Amino acid sequence: MTSRIAQWTLDVQDIGVMSRFWSAALGYRVEAGDDGSAKLYPPDEAVPGALPVWLQASAGPKSGKNRNHPDLVSPDGDHAAEVERLLALGARRADVGQTGEEGFTVLADPEGNEFCLLKSPPV
């Protein structure tokens, strides 16, 4: 038997800001938890196995580069338009040492958590 990834968990300071950003970015619905957390669920039309996201309250700000991060892909393949949409939602461009030749764009959410938008689905 092996383990499977069940959800993506992110420690955040502002549950409201972050749930609005990530739900809009992913098209997920939000359910607020009684403990100040929020759970984001994929839409019914999501691909099988799409992971839920749990935003849990954290006492401190993020420090340093993330050691892991999500890789997103635009479902319609329009990478440039999706970068602009995510920036309009509150993301910002992030420099983690990329050269510009990569097959992705590095962005950060409103609290500085890095993520990548892939130019094409992984193979």
Mean pLDDT, to the nearest integer, reads 93
Q: How many discrete structural domains?
A: 2
Report the order of strands and helices: EHEEEEHEEE
CATH fold-level name of the largest domain:
2,3-Dihydroxybiphenyl 1,2-Dioxygenase, domain 1
Report the strand count: 8
Q: In terms of structural class, how would the helical and strand content be classed?
A: alpha/beta
Radius of gyration: 15 Å
Query: What is the helix content?
Result: 10-25%
User: Largest beta sheet, briefly?
Assistant: 4 strands, mixed
CA(first)-CA(last) distance: 25 Å
**Global outline:** globular
CATH superfamily of the largest domain: 2,3-Dihydroxybiphenyl 1,2-Dioxygenase, domain 1
Query: What is the C-level CATH assignment of the largest domain?
Result: Alpha Beta
Q: Please give the CATH architecture of the largest domain.
A: Roll
Strand order of the largest sheet: 1-4-3-2
Helix tally?
2
